[in-house]
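Quick question, first post here. What does this chain look like in 3D?
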Amino acid sequence: MTLPTSLQSNPRFDQWLKFLSDETLRMATGKVEIGQGIVSALPQIAAEELDLPLDRVIVLSGDTVSGPDERYTASSLSIMDSGAAIRLVCAEARALLLDRAALRLNCAVAQLSVAAGRFLVDGTAADLSYWDVAGEIDWSQSVKGDGIAKSHTEYSIVGQSVPRRDLPAKLSGGAFIYDLVHDNMLHARVLRQPGRGASLAGLDEAAIQRAAPGAIEILRLDNFVAFIGLDEWAVETAAAIAPSHATWIGAPAIEPAQQDAAWLRGEPAIDNSYGAPEDAGASGELVEAVFSRPYVAHASLAPSCALAQYVDEHLTIWSHGQGMHLLRRNIAQVLDLPVEAVTAHHAMGAGCYGHNGADDAALDAAIIAVQKPGATIRLQWRRQEEFGFEPFGPAMLVRLAVRRDRAGRPSDWTAEVWSPTHVQRPGTGSGYMLAADALASPPPDLQPEDPGEERGGGGTRNAAPYYDIPNSRIQHHLVTNPPVRTSALRTLGAITNVFAMEAMIDDLAAMADEDPLAYRLSMLSDPRARAVLEVVAERSGWSRRDAGGQGRDLGRGSGKGLGLAFARYKNTAAYAAVVVALSVEREVHLENIWIVADGGLVINPDGVRNQLEGGAIQGASWALKEQVTMSGVGVTSLDWDSYPILKFSEVPEIDAVVLDQPDQPSLGVGECSVSPTAAAIGNALAHALDQRIYDMPLNRDRIMAALSA
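> Answer (accepted):
Ran it through. Tokens below.
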């Protein structure tokens, strides 16, 4: 059998499991908790396969000393990859434990069963447990993958909604990296280069020292400047006023037009094509439309933060980044340290969902720590720094060109996509950490690249129709000179591609004078795709959309709309169908969101529903509000006023349903509801206005411009 990717990279049992002396099991994972609930769901898998009470499974997450290297926590792969690996490891470990117990008890393995980690012989309790025999097994051996996992019909823990392990500490204080307090701790802030390649020509250190309300130290290494002290308010004040006392040369200028997706067309790009070759003789009516999304920020609710300590030539880092093993290697490389001289531990942060500033903050802290041996450096970004210098979600422009056959169905589909790279994670060959560019030997110019199609693509993610369309292709223009650094943000290019595709499907249905639901179902042969659409239609009362009576005030420019969208994330992960009800007055008001998803075997149903709801809220915020603005030497949307997000008061009633398929493999659900929600909002707005808005965000200015055109 082919082992899960995580298990191929970490084949030893002891990278995953350790039976502790207090009769608990430590289960390790390289995946980290970023709000998706994996520190609750993954132990359910381990407890299920080993017949242990859930409270006897302790989780070690994101630790380079004792945990497996599972690269980044990304792309909705934690349950699909790490969960599959843990299931196989635990199933095979159980078999080894049973074999050893049979020798100790002088019985056949078939006579044995397990309850709460203790062995029974022919149903009678024996005075023997896992912990009695675990020490007799060589756990350094590799997993073969031949353990027999339980059938879903035997599950008693998997498939149950269990309380989130991470929530009590988060709600009571103490769970987040911001709460960590170490002895001999110094606070630090940095002065950022205004752009890559900028050189610091002058810094009035005396003026900064005078303005700080306490003692601070100013550390300067080439173009890297840090403010350090015992008093956090003093270093915060120093960092806030430092830009007005710094003179930079060589900072690149940004024109306002560069903030818009339309600017991408015609810029230097790496071009690739995927799918069926173009058919110059394709017949049928040609329908074309262009859609866009602007640059978008992660907008994490708390700014990036890290702790670092350099003692006896060993660097220890605490970070809320998404991959501790990669962070360890990347920082070691920048600081020219042996990788064995760096340890990285994960600590939870407030908001991540992609490559935000966490890795950058970790390098900032590490640079300072190496210069201040023995002290623990707590480095936190300022809010303006978070908005101004994190890697952004790329702007995207999508042109769809579709030919209709005589029945009004698409017979030929072309998606042409312009986008900067969606992944510039450090260590991937196309990314770097900010402070590395400020040091004496900055990284060379890197060739941007996107995730390959086998990994779901970047700008092309979900650009290929999941519908039954005879011929389709993607023309991808990977723009190489964006005005700002871009990298991974939840769903990568899927949100723009699904927004565009589902708008086109709705418009084609209207041209065929057919109901959008019936039109979609006529082009979907996958029964699981059909099921999520049919169930969401039933739950949302879709039949009232253009009916008389109750539905008479919907659509046709009435200001009230009901919109539908569907996508299977990456065309390989979870299925999701979304219906949105909204009204348009001074602003777009969301009234209801209905979500139905199919994620295969569901480990923790409540956790999945939380993911669906959170994804819908973020998709709605992107669709309606969010846009990075820039001009001059950088970003101008530097606070919550200039970069608005969806407010709590604007979150509608959300009905989220999971179609559990226990006999199917688990599919990643973390990002599956984001894109269909944005697309359903676009379709509901078109229904309410009787006019399509092609560019996100769908805010008041965009709507007024479209209506007055």
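Residues 230 and 663 are 57 Å apart (CA to CA).
The two ends are 60 Å apart (CA to CA).
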